[in-house]
């Protein structure tokens, strides 16, 4: 009887509604109207591709300058790490901590967790399915905070421009960093948590 129910039940990936209808594959969710699927199609392939791409782009994002500051004609370029060090040297510890967490801790944590989830789907690991699912939702919720650096550079570039005296422009590194943030958000969004429960620990 339980198998009968499981074969008919669909969990909407958008709103979480359980739809218990036979032959509901591809039908619209009665609550939000999204297309019902037992599993997201090609979820693993997309998540792997996006995660690997974000890891590759993370290197130029940290090696290339993210911001160019021109003061009285003298130009200074800073990478993300260079900016963190500069904030620290100027005793701006709070900003230094925020930038460090948003630029290093969060992206690395996201990519590490996604790799962990992908590689442990078909084998036993230190965490059970409940813990893996909770870990995924942590990643899903903190991912957008990495865009903080991008917003800071964009705001400073737009507001601080006095010509010869002071001019701030975004560097190529911020483009790569934006791509990393977007790719990791897409990767977590394409991952189907129901795959974690397909094979119990």
Automatic annotation (TrEMBL):
GO terms under cellular component: plasma membrane
Keyword Lyase: no
Keyword Plastid: no
Major subcellular site: membrane
Superkingdom to which the source organism belongs: Bacteria
Residue ranges of coiled coil: none
Pfam family, one: PqiA
Protein's cellular compartments: Cell inner membrane
Transmembrane segments: 47-67, 92-121, 142-160, 166-187
Entry protein name: Paraquat-inducible protein A
Alphabetic keyword roster: Cell inner membrane, Cell membrane, Membrane, Transmembrane, Transmembrane helix
């Amino acid at each position: 009887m339980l198998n009968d129910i499981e074969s008919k039940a669909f969990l909407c990936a958008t709103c979480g509604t359980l739809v218990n209808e036979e032959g509901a594959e591809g039908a619209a969710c009665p609550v939000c109207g999204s297309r019902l699927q037992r599993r997201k199609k090609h979820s693993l392939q997309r998540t792997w591709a996006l995660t690997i791409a974000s890891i590759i782009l993370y290197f130029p994002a940290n090696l290339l300058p993210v911001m160019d500051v021109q003061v009285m004609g003298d130009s200074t370029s800073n990478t993300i790490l260079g900016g963190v060090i500069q904030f620290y040297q100027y005793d701006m510890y709070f900003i230094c901590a925020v930038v460090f967490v948003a630029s290093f801790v969060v992206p690395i944590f996201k990519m590490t967790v996604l790799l962990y989830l992908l590689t442990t789907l078909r084998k036993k690991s230190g965490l059970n399915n409940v813990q893996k699912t909770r870990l995924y939702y942590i990643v899903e919720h903190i991912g957008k905070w990495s865009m903080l650096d991008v917003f800071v550079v964009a705001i400073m570039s737009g507001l601080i421009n006095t010509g010869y005296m002071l001019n701030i422009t975004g560097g190529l590194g911020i483009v790569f960093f934006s791509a990393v943030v977007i790719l990791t958000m897409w990767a977590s969004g394409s991952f189907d948590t129901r795959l974690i429960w397909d094979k119990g620990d």
